[in-house]
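Async update (no meeting this week)

Hi team, since we skipped the sync, here's where things stand on the single-chain job. The sequence we agreed to prioritize is pasted below, unchanged from the tracker. I ran it this morning and attached the output directly underneath so nobody has to dig for it. Comments welcome in thread, and please keep replies under the output.
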Amino acid sequence: MARESGWQNPSPSAHEEPVDTTHTEALSGLSAADVAERIAAGKTNAFTPDSSRSAWNIVRANVFTLFNGIVFACFFVLFLVGRWQDALFGFAAFANAIIGSVQEFRAKAALDRLALLSAPHARVLRAGAEAEIAPGEVVLDDLLVLRAGDQVPADAEILGARGLQIDESMLTGESDPVDKHPGAEALSGSVVVAGEGSARVTRVGADSYANRFAGEAKRFSLVSSELRSSINRVLKWVSWGIGPISLLVFNAQVMVAGGYATAFTTGAWVQAVVNTIASVTAMIPLGLVLMTSIAFAVGATKLARRQVLVNELPAVEGLARVDMICLDKTGTLTVGEIAFDQAHPLAEAPGAQHGDGPGDWQGALAWYAASPDANATARSMRAAYPVDSARSTAGYIPFSSARKWSAVSFDGAAETWVMGAPEMVFGDAASSASTELGRTVTSLAETGRRTLVLARAGEALTEADVQAERLPADLTPTAVLTFREQVRPDAAQTLEYFRQQGVGIRIISGDNPRTVAAIAREIGIDVAEGFDARALPEEEEELAEVLEQHTVFGRVTPEQKKRMVTALQSRGHTVAMTGDGVNDALAIKTADIGIAMNSGSPATKAVARLVLLDGQFSHLPDVVAEGRQVIANIERVSMLFLTKTAYATLLAILFGALVLEFPFLPRQLSITDGLTIGIPAFFLALMPNAARYMPGFLRRSLSFAIPAGIVIALGLTWYTFVAQGIGVSPEQLRTGATIILALVGIWVLAVLSRPLNRYKVLVVGAMFVGLVLVFTIPAARAFFELVDPGEELAIALTGITIVMVACIEVVRLVHRRLLSAASAPTGATPLTTGQPGVRPSVTGRVATTIVAVLAYATGFLSTGIGILVLLSRYEGESDERLALSVVGAAIALLGLLTVALAAGLRRGSGLSRLLISIFLGILALLSVIVVVSSDRWDWGATATAVGAALLIVLLWTPPVARGFRQIRDSSMTDLPRAN
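Output:
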């Protein structure tokens, strides 16, 4: 093998230790029979940690939770007391658990398949032949061949080494590479960063060091994220409140029934238990946990289809929070395939002869290119400098990414050849204009080409030189070598995307700063020159300041990359690090989000949270978009669930303290929760959403949910006192409360769905139709115990509903204003109406504001009229009820949608104007039908029809129309922002 490549091991001399002479060629490895014997005995490395959670972990996370325990306990209590009709929420919990498990199983299957495809290989010597096998096929006593970039697949004892250095930081936390000599131990999971060697496997499978720690670096894990930690905090708060609140509610329900003695004598305690269970189950935001898990799992599955392996699902969320991305140049911005360009001999060169004599720099290049441990840069010279004859080495210092040079001396020649980075070999002279070397390197680096220098010393390497890894004295530069890298065609577009999204970019590379700067300019980054990392300060605060001021860095060591990431994090940045080499592994592991190319080393991919399997840098915007979708949609969904938790908790406290009968049966809450929160939340959690990430997820969610919950709880309490004053039956009281909660719930859904598009309108409309069907179909009315509330109560609940809806609108308006004030950059002037990028006139702003106010008024009026028409069906003939239900429901729904779209009018959205015009036209037609079909003149329907017609005319008259954007240039929202 070495003879074919033109490389041979040095012959052992009397003063050399075995560490410098032992190599794999002196060993033959296991025979086929030996391997078969060990496989039969089970002594294989076939231990594959899951790339995702185990099936049991998925089931446990979705089924065996505290709140599922509470829900299922309530479920079985209701069965025991014979009220199975009120146990619907139990089936919903079962469905949630099944859906969550199925979604995560699908994500697990996709991730496991991709993880298998991207698994690293092990290099072994068997029967004298080198082979690459899967890590699981390694057996006990196998002979491993270790080279730079390899990950050790199993615990092994070093037999031979040549400048072998292994990075064990992923296992021991020690950042410095460890020199390995014969007899030393190589731990599985560690990484060869320099040199080469051989090792005999001593422990395999579950017994190996890395597997005893369960492969944490590679395994899918639900690591801490803002979404999950915030939701867990809410669940903790609710769990503390459930016990005392349920006792308070139960006591109140018993008191309403006449006291404990009466309740347990007459059996009224059963209704008290049912009412208590209704209040307890309403407080639990079960679906929020489910929606978060589904959103993560679906996001990971979608990214898997785009060839992005998500090792940890919260990384989907994490990249959306990144505000600083550090990019390694080679393999990330460039394709990673380096091509030899040209050798530029210097005047100081000792000659250009090509033979085995002194000064044969071309022969030295041929040896470097053919060396078995040659890196990609050296291998690229093989075609230009083929090996004529094999040469034996007398001394050799392998290349190290830390010192960035290597050196070799040949038998029979009193000279040493050094190849490496010019600045690392000759220091400041390599960039000084006073030397030929400096002028040559500078001019070549400025063209974007990568430069190395080949230098010669007049003395051979000594044993002390090799052991100390020091440069020989009196080096003379012989030739400057240039290499070209192909810039990824998608790099410029991807970086432009990050710049537009306000994400800071730092390019860090081990190459010449001028070369890195030239590549940066090629991809659109305006930078004059790169910062030489050799001048970076040691203090973290000073380093962070340099990183804030500069964009491009060259001659960066692996340890410096890690320190740079840490320094940026100390300034509050959420940092992503991309790379593909072993030298990037430390920084990738330290970063908040580590991203590896599939062409990278196994170690780099093992610690990365995201792996770009097809190496396409352009996938990163997809990942950011997916993360933003998850965060923004879960935030929106969380407001739905937390609003329910807020009003349910406050209702339970109010009704317990005021000793009022709880106004819902569990089955009634189940249907309203399902159609106003659970089902629509599933669709909203998976819809496209490009809102930019802002920290403070829980604060923003609660700042809407708590005021909205207070409005709903106070409104229902107000309604309960009104109903008791009218003297209605318990069934009528519950029916009215259910109607109010359903309508206000639909309104909260519509408010949080803004900006509305056709998909969201369809979801909101479908849920409204579903509720109308529940209140209309006789069998459904009977099951949910819904009765005619009576005319007096119908008018009261309509008025209370409109007031509550208006209050919810005010809460959302204030909420958005507060968020806008918190997120708007200083000095920014937001656009509101008119053509994109053009500030509208005062007249245009006034006109659009007036029509928006009129749209709100018309929408609220229509909602009230629709509710009254819907409830008036009880007074008509049975054959008229279906028609009245459809007309009333349609008027109420169109009124709600009109109010929901009115905010778009205020911003000058042409699309909102078009949709509202359509809705108003249908409203006017339905109102006319109501007026014509009524026995007496309906002033409300008349006002709705006239108002809708006038508003349509106003929207399309020239003075107002000029304030709206063209439909093709507008949407129903401003630029993407946090909800």
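Quick observations from my side:
The chain has 36 helices and 22 strands.
The chain has a mean pLDDT of 77.
Reply here if anything looks off.
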